[in-house]
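Annex B.
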Amino acid sequence: MANPAPGGQNRLPLHVVMAFASTALPVAAIGLVMGVYLPRFFASAVGLSLAAVGGAFTIVRLIDMALDPLLGMAMDRTRTRFGRYRVWLSIGAPIVMAAVYMLFMAKPGITEFYLIGWLLVLYLGISIVTLSQAAWGASLATGYHDRSRVYGLIQAVGVVGAVLILLLPMALGPKAAGAAGVHAMGWFCIIAVPIALFICLSLTPERVATDVAKERVTLNDYISLVRRPEMARLIFADLFMALGPGTTAALYLFFFHDARGYSHQQTNFLLVLYIAAGLVGAMFWGWLAQKVGKHRALMISTVCYAISQSALMLIPPATMPLAIPGMISVGFVSSAFILIVRAMVADVADEVRLETGKERVGLLYALVTTTQKIGTAITVGISFTVLDLVGYNAAEGAVNTPAAIRGLELCYVFAPIILVFFGGAAFIGWKLDAKRHAEIRRKLDERDALAAEAGLLDAVAGASVAVQAPH
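Na+/melibiose symporter-like transporter: predicted structure tokens.
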């Protein structure tokens, strides 16, 4: 299934990686609409207030952030003849489809409780799909550098999904304006989910470690993982790297249309370029992580993000020739954050399994997906509340005061820079590099081989062989 790579590590065939990454396409498309279009859709087309929309997203995220650890524990305990993560992926897909329909097709007159309820269902489905894919990827790709490659391709496929969802309203023309565009995006996602699921489940194998302990996963396991220095750093960094781009996603349409004077068509086009730049960026940052190490690549990306994000304020309003390279550079840089952190979590999972003999991949990924949810809750809730306090009016055709526009600009441009810098600082002095991980994988592979040999002897001769971890 895997081809040898330099350094003795296995390299997954490209067709396996692409099939596995296919589910990232609809998930990324849904995530983009949720972060950029859905808040505005409910605040303008559906008729809810900014405070109500921001409050709904915050409430849902605060409730939902406790869900991922429970899902991670359940995944780590799952044993079926169909595999562990493919079962969860199959459960999450129909939940996502139902919630997308109820939210993306919402009509004027719904209440905040309707929004909260179906957001909870959607986030449940998305959590199951993204968490099962992330944990499955850690067991699928075992090499330090191959993980950068695999998670980079997952990110790239997600970018394709985001670009397609952005191009859809543009392809449909004026009839897809406003609410009609969100409806079209909803149908795209509903159709894409089962297609991607079929491709992934049909072509992707699933590995299960031979030395996995069968005991229950408890709250103490969760606490012990959070207290690990490497994991604590990743959680902190992932939170702040989610807060930065999360703030810009929630305010993007308001910033470029109302504060910078671009038309709706120009705003959509700039967003397409921003997302599309992430396709090249994902490949570049995955490559750079293999050359200089994942933690160094992340620190470099935070500095580049600060430079490119600051440049947006230097561009004169309604100046497309300058806005185009500006948005491309920001999209290129910000594509590094999620993919490298996810690859680093897989390395920590190997270290945990070596030291404890326990498979905790699902729970480890639950920790970082929870930080993503916390980041989204804080950005949407706080940003929309601040805009409401400064008097910003989100209604179509509304005229805002200079003070309201200035508050919008400060929230969009400078707050994310500070947040992302905090995330990059977390990797100063990082120890789990390629050399350390190669030693961990060597010991795990030796132990797995001994365990397989012991199992074979047990089956053939009834012998009982004690397996000791190599030192």
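Confidence is low (pLDDT under 50) at residues 1-8, 209-213, 463-471. The radius of gyration is 23 Å. Further annotation is deferred to the next reporting cycle.
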